[in-house]
Amino acid sequence: MEKVQVKGANGKLGVLVVGVGGAVASTFIAGTLITRKGMGIPVGSITQLATMRIGKREDNHFPKIKDVVPLANLNDIVFGGWDLFEENVYQAAKHAEVLTKEDIDKVKDELATIKPMKAVFDQEFVKRLHGTWVKSAPTKWDLAEQVKEDIRNFKKENGCDRIVVIWCGSTEVFTPLGEVHKTLAAFEKGLKENHKDIAPSNIYAYAAVAEGVPYINGAPNLTVDIPAMWELAAQHQVPICGKDFKTGQTMLKTVLSPMFKTRMLGLNGWFSTNILGNRDGEVLDDPGSFKTKEESKLSVIDNILQPELYPELYGNVYHKVRINYYPPRNDDKEGWDNIDLFGWLGYKMQMKVDFLCKDSILAAPLCLDLVLFTDLAKRAGMSGIQDWLSFYFKSPMHEPNKVAEHDLFIQYVKLKNTLRKMIGEETIDYLD
């Protein structure tokens, strides 16, 4: 198979995080720094730990992905970003209380040097937060210009060869796709006229893509999932992906739903509830932000089960999702699911799942993988929506003429086959 021409991962890779002082970002950054010092294991990271079969099964060749795919080295990563609050990432990591002080102190000096740039913030889009370290400008166009300048300055000051931007910020209030999002011309006009439906996340995405920088959307916000941004990404040949990191409860749904469907087991109802603290829980306590998250979480089951094809099994499923802010838990999220299913001759059964997890501990390795894979995509000349990275998202972006793939295992095969193509190996269909 012809090998894709991938430029080498030479020089430093700048990773700019929106929400760099949040629980997810500080856990991601601290964990990456600890890992590269050899003081921790990056559990959950496919780029660092997973193997990939090369050739036929009888060849028994299973090298680690990082040994055969030209990914950036962790030692070449430089971190920076923006946040609503001025504290450095060492202070932020202690405040988040995800990692122990013992672990945070292993990289105290490095974390303390990462100080956030002022954020683009609009109270209308995140009702429960009150930013104190924010940019000001007469128009949203001017704010985008400030973010572009931030990216250029960071790249120059840190001697970076390449940059990737990743959104680890809060969920914004639900914003439906409007006329301002449908064309690049309309969007740029909207920036200059302070259109009310252009969110801070849109501004970051516009600035990054216009600078030729890959953009990863870790929240369910529209952000880069709009025609205007697809147009911009095509112009500048930039990879974009999202949206909403697939971590706890939804990850389980993308595993259990395929099981029900492949065994032709019926489903009557699926009730999901969550309790969580930290900034994420506080933001999602607002109905507007919850609506955005709810849309992301509800789409999974119907997509996988395809009720239009199996009305007798999935034509009348009652699906409910609840998220409750509970400060005592901090980052220790609990997702509880009650599933009412039925089997042979319609006899009823139940499944109950209680997943007690650390949200940021699950999200951190996803951030690392996505940063390395989008940088790889950029060096491989890939642009636009990177649907081969759907594995990492609750609500994967996809081309308008395609249907999103939610099945975790199909997503995983697609991810690895894309990597195989990049290094000139045969893709695997398991028929051998």
TrEMBL record:
One of its GO terms (molecular function) is inositol-3-phosphate synthase activity. The chain crosses the membrane at residues 12-34. Residues 248-360 form the Myo-inositol-1-phosphate synthase GAPDH-like domain. It comes from the Bacteria. Keywords: Isomerase, Membrane, Transmembrane, Transmembrane helix. SUPFAM superfamilies: Glyceraldehyde-3-phosphate dehydrogenase-like, C-terminal domain, NAD(P)-binding Rossmann-fold domains. One of its GO terms (biological process) is phospholipid biosynthetic process. Pfam families: Inos-1-P_synth, NAD_binding_5. Gene3D superfamilies: Dihydrodipicolinate Reductase, domain 2, NAD(P)-binding Rossmann-like Domain. Its EC number is 5.5.1.4. Belongs to the myo-inositol 1-phosphate synthase family. This is Myo-inositol-1-phosphate synthase. It comes from Dysgonomonas hofstadii. The lineage of its organism: Bacteria, Pseudomonadati, Bacteroidota, Bacteroidia, Bacteroidales.
